[in-house]
Amino acid sequence: MKHILILPGDGIGPEVTSQAVRILQTVLSHHQVIYQLDEALIGGAALDACGEPLPQDTLHRAQQADAVLLGAVGGPRWDQLPAGQRPERGLLALRAGLCCFANLRPIKVMAPLLSQSALKNQRALGVDLVVVRELTGGLYFSEPRGMQREPTVAAWNTMRYEAAEIDRIAQVAFQLAERRSGKLVSVDKANVLEVSRLWRERVDRLAHDHPGVAVQHQYVDNAAMQLVLAPQQFDVLLTENMFGDILSDVGGAVVGSLGLLPSASLNAQGKGIYEPLHGTAPDLAGRDVANPIGAMLSVAMLLDHGLGMPAAAQAVRTAVEQALRYGRTADLAAEGMPVLGTMAFGDLVLQVLHDEVPKDRKEGQGA
Ligand code: NAD
Ligand code: IPM
Ligand code: MN
Questions:
Q1: What is the pTM (predicted TM-score) of this model?
Q2: I need a labelling partner for 315 at 20 to 30 A (CA). Which of 26, 148, 257, 321 fits?
Q3: Of all residues in the chain, what percent carry a pLDDT higher than 70?
Q4: Atom of ligand 1 nearest to the CA of 91
Q5: Which protein residues touch ligand 2 with a CB less than 6 Å away?
Q6: DSSP code string of 253-281
Q7: Separation of 194 CA from ligand 1 center, angstroms?
């Protein structure tokens, strides 16, 4: 019996997650997997219900589950709360509580969506990279942190990494590069930050054990530019927590919409949290317009990494790509292509998964 915990969260989180869950249920049934799905609270929804962004019960159930599928957390309603009580803290605490230090963020341009890229098509063609982001250390977690009003108004955070934290995430990136093209770009700010100098030192040290991997170091400011100018040069991009957060959203523009991108956050035992890269999109919430593909492809990653079902994962990816020929959500609007709501796009992917290639639908003209 596979136990999967669903954490819809806030804003568009529940909307995209419910479509992803339909896909998950269908694929698990197709593969005769016996499973149980449970739902729990996180983020603003948890704050409203019980006054904390990560209730003990949610963390406990996440620890017991085989995998966690998450929507997104946060929103303007909770923005004025003190730092320690914000919805986003609940997500950070969940990642830390499960020791999910390895965040894999694949950024792949899908053939039917090439013309949706913000880049010239020849620059976006064939982009297929993975950002390996350290997820439980660095600026988002290190102490001391704080804010004061007296005697001077000030605030501070700390970026601290221990060598072992760098080694374990770099190890993930090296192993991934070995399974892919053997090219690893490590991104840092070693011209300014001591943390980055240590990062570089540890990555270079590990490179000796991985002679099949060609390592290149890039400064983060240059890397941000390179991702827009020549994203095809990247295969595996390794970086620390905050740089990875920022650089991976650039991937949204490269593929055409932030709503397309999935992620997996894994611990040393391979247990994971699967979630789209995007946030709660308050501008879209409650309107049935959000793109659920990031959540659906997170289900594919869950099947792959969490349940060891690569064929099922591939079936989801193929169904999503097929469906894009018949309709898309508004963020991917193209001439001659029907615009579908979140739920209608979910219906379409399910139809494709059930092998009923939509006879009642016409292929769109849009590229
Ligand atoms: P966001 O990712 O919610 O939105 C950024 C832009 O992308 C918006 O224009 C939005 O409309 C668009 N977008 C995002 N998801 C989309 C989708 N599925 N389909 C179509 N368009 C989509 O980022 P933001 O506006 O900076 O943050 C909003 C809230 O979400 C904040 O409270 C933030 O803290 C939170 N957040 C949460 C997560 C998470 O839970 N993992 C991630 C990022 C931001
Ligand atoms: C993400 C988000 C989170 C992060 C926030 C909401 C804590 O931006 O998953 O990319 O910074 O990791
Ligand atoms: Mn982010």
A1: 0.97
A2: 257
A3: 98
A4: 40
A5: 74, 88, 91-92, 245, 277
A6: HHHS-GGG-EEEEE-TTS-EEEEESS---
A7: 32
